[in-house]
Amino acid sequence: MKSIALATLLLLVAGEPLAEHSTGLGPTLGFDAMDAGQTPAGFLTALTGGGGEGSWVIREDVTAPSGRKVVVQTSHAETSYRFPLCVYKGFTGKDVELAVRFKPISGRIDQAAGLVWRYRDSSNYYVVRANALENNVVLYKVEDGKRTDLKPEGSGFFTYGKKMPVPRGEWSELRVRAQGKRFAVWLNGERLFDVEDETFGGAGKVGLWTKADSVTAFDDLSIVSYDAE
User: Which of 25, 49, 176, 207 is 20 to 30 Å from 223 at the Cα level?
Assistant: First the structure.
């Protein structure tokens, strides 16, 4: 059986640990040791769709949940099918629990923040995202570059994720637990829905995600592994 006791991974970036403090989920990893104005060390950037790659940079933010530095996706190309990614290079896993603090800053088309897991490449992965313009949370699979929403258990065919207030200009927490074919989603501590899907059954990388012209800040990324040794 998989053991939760295997658990919490302290990720290393460029040979040094990210800033860490404790939460209910596990050690939380910040960006305070990184240089402002730079792409976060230990991450790669990628793009699904068109409109040009994103720009992920470390910035100072006095409102940060911890410390004073966050990572912000700053580009704002108004291409609807455009999904910038920031993927952590140092971890690969199948069954994981991810959480991140996020703050929607601006965007005319979208103001979105997402968590990615079982990432194979920029055309194949799972993502759950919260959107401050639509006030909803939706889980998708991206397969061969095509994004498809996955229906919450017990919902109807026309259901699109879960309606939920996503405040603009404020910090929220998005969380997902992936175990086998089951995925559970939380926003700000409230469990929203579960989904089942078997498209990507193997291990993959994890990361951050935005959409279209979303300018979004992220902090306090937490990764817990449930994989067997």
Answer: 49
Tokens describing residue 30:
């910040």
The dihedral sign for the CA sequence 118, 124, 130, 132 = positive
For residue 168, pLDDT over 70 is answered with: yes
Strands (E), the chain: 12-13, 16-17, 20-22, 27-29, 43-49, 56-60, 69-73, 82-88, 96-106, 112-121, 124-131, 136-143, 146-149, 162-163, 172-179, 182-187, 190-196, 205-209, 215-225
**Matching residue, tokens 């609807």:** 80
Spatial distance between the Cα atoms of 131 and 90, rounded to a whole number of angstroms: 28
User: Given this model, what pLDDT does residue 229 score?
Assistant: 58
Tell me how many domains the chain contains: 1
Residue 156: exposure state from Cβ atoms within 10 A (0-12, 13-18, ≥19): exposed
Q: Is residue 1 part of a domain?
A: no
Q: Is residue 6 part of a domain?
A: no
Tens of pLDDT, residue by residue over 51-78, are 999 999 999 999 999 899 999 999 999 9
